[in-house]
UniProtKB/TrEMBL annotation:
Protein name: Membrane protein
Alphabetical UniProt keywords: Membrane, Transmembrane, Transmembrane helix
InterPro entries (UniProt xref): SpoIIM-like
Organism of derivation: Roseibacillus persicicus
Pfam families in the record: SpoIIM
Coiled-coil regions, chain positions: none
Entry's transmembrane regions: 104-130, 186-211, 269-290, 296-314
């Protein structure tokens, strides 16, 4: 067993750095991004040092010093985690988590858009596959909204009663889709893969059906306004589920339960951001999309929201995300 003096010499530099960081936080100063990332790991090491000092009877003075570091670290880490800051979440934490998991985004894009285009163009050679996806009720709904004589606004109000009720329906429907996509990640990501592919097939089937039997302009002017928030929200829900499943497939040095908990914390950040996007999508869908406005205006609004969404997400930095 090493002596108290050797133990102190080995770790003195790290303890001094921890004391400096705690003093900085006590003085209401902010840590650099690198310091903030390293602080949880440094805190865990100080906790281990305190345990060793007590077990090896290194003395009251050293134990008291380390106990002060542990209490200071706990105070600041607990405060930063317990206080939810919506502005910080939307401007830094969420876009940072998005950038940190960008690879899962591209996986989701391929899983969704490949089936989408396959079904959307399959109508040129017959409606068999499209009919198998939509079913009779789905095709009737598409005819009522986007058929030659269809009216999306009249259909929505006949079904739900008012714009506000349509908004509530879209929130419930879209959130349920996003949550199923995310929750499927608990099965090693298989459920997320299934729901992402299925959503691509379903939306592609709807687009293909309207192009072959209905009025495509009604369809595209309806979806253009809210499509950015809705589809990107769906992709980010898929990212969250894939993140969850990947933690189970590749737990590293952690147990699978520990890896699940760790990845769930990061996944929930993504899911929270997806929920915000989905809420905006439902609001636009309920109060704007079905209303009769010039197609040029609707497409212009849709393009604006796509550009805004892309710029917002790509503005994120990996180092903004405080990893659990």
């Amino acid at each position: 067993m090493i002596s108290r003096k050797q133990f102190q010499q080995m770790n003195e530099g790290r303890w001094l750095e921890s004391e400096r960081q705690i003093a900085k936080l006590d003085g209401r100063d902010k840590l650099t991004p690198e310091e903030a990332r390293e602080m949880p790991a440094s805190f865990r090491k100080v906790c281990q040092d305190l345990g060793l000092a007590g077990e090896r009877l290194y003395g009251l003075a050293l134990s008291s010093r380390l106990n002060g570091l542990v209490m200071g670290g706990f105070r600041h880490l607990h405060r930063s985690r317990a206080r939810f800051q919506p502005i910080r979440f939307l401007t830094r934490t969420f876009p940072g988590a998005f950038k940190h998991n960008l690879g899962f985004f591209w996986v989701s894009v391929v899983l969704f858009w490949l089936p989408f285009f396959l079904l959307a163009f399959s109508g040129q050679w017959g409606l068999v596959w499209i009919q198998s996806i939509l079913g009779p009720e789905g095709m009737q709904g598409m005819d009522a909204m986007y058929g030659k004589d269809g009216d999306a606004l009249a259909h929505g109000r006949a079904t739900h009663g008012s714009d506000f009720m349509m908004f509530g329906h879209y929130v419930q429907n879209n959130v349920s889709i996003d949550f199923r996509t995310f929750a499927g990640g608990i099965f090693y990501g298989i459920g997320t893969l299934f729901f992402t592919i299925f959503n691509g097939l379903a939306i592609g089937a709807a687009a293909g059906y309207v192009h072959e039997t209905g009025d495509p302009m009604k369809f595209w002017t309806f979806v253009s306004g809210h499509s950015a928030f809705e589809l990107v929200g769906l992709h980010i829900s898929s990212m969250a589920g894939l993140r969850l499943g990947w933690g189970l497939i590749r737990p590293g040095q952690l147990t699978r339960m520990a890896a699940l908990i760790k990845n769930a914390q990061e996944s929930l950040v993504l899911l929270g951001g997806a929920a915000v996007l989905t809420f905006f999508a439902a609001f636009i869908e309920g109060f704007w999309s079905a209303h009769p406005n010039p197609p040029a205006l609707k497409f212009g609004v849709g393009i604006f929201f796509w550009v805004l969404t892309i710029l917002y997400l790509m503005s994120g930095r990996k180092e903004w995300y405080e990893r659990p």
